[in-house]
Amino acid sequence: MSLYARLTGWIVLLFGLGYFFIPLLGLTEFSLKARRGVYSLDAYAKIIGDTEFQATFSYSVVMALVTIAFGILIVVPTAFWVRLKMPWARPYVEFLTLLPLVIPAIVIVFGYIRLYNTSSWLPLTGTVTGTNLLLAFGYTVLALPYMYRAVDTGLRTIDVATLTEAAQSLGAGWATILTRVILPNVLPAVLSGAFLTFAIVIGEFTLAALLDRPAFGPYLQRIGANKPYEPFALSVIAFAITWACMGLIQLVTRFSKHMKAES
Length: 263
Known about the structure:
Elements: H1 3-31, H2 42-49, H3 51-84, H4 90-102, H5 105-115, H6 128-156, H7 160-169, H8 174-185, H9 187-203, H10 206-210, H11 216-226, H12 230-262
Helix pairs in contact: 1-12, 2-12, 3-6, 3-9, 4-6, 6-9, 7-8, 9-12, 11-12
């Protein structure tokens, strides 16, 4: 590689890092100015000590866990069956799982409200439990492209047919094959999809706001409209949560590669 190409690569890299990190540094620096004349963590202390922050964040964490459970129950059997028995259906399944990327969340939530309002045949919006369940279904739809892609990629790395035939020869049923053979082998991929789902649910606004649920996304919007320094501190916290999820994905991926190399 010539000196010119190497220099150009470094310039592009530094430009990209600056474009990404300089606004973040400015955001962080401003969030530390809640106390006049000195840097302090007052804004962060107010946010973390806010009971509404604790309640909304806890609610979103619970909803994220429920969404991850729904995603695993739906995606893992579907991807497994398509890969094993219905490879011809794979393009159609991929098309369906990509639809949430092109259909706005506001369209999905208005469809839910129309179908499941208090005057419908299944009035889910009439109770808190029903509305929470509806929100979890909506989150599952939004996370479907990421969960399905992650699981499908994991299934490509193993010999699904051979593992299934070996398990069946030992008398295992389909439930046993899925839970004790397939799922452990694609666990790193499932965890990657789970962390992406967690990040999506924590920051999602439209579904929670229109279904009137006490989630973290609407709380972010309310704080941003009413406080001077706390919104910036909250943005840094949300950014840190998202990047922690991305870091965990990388950690899981490296750990799985290390385990495969040892085996």
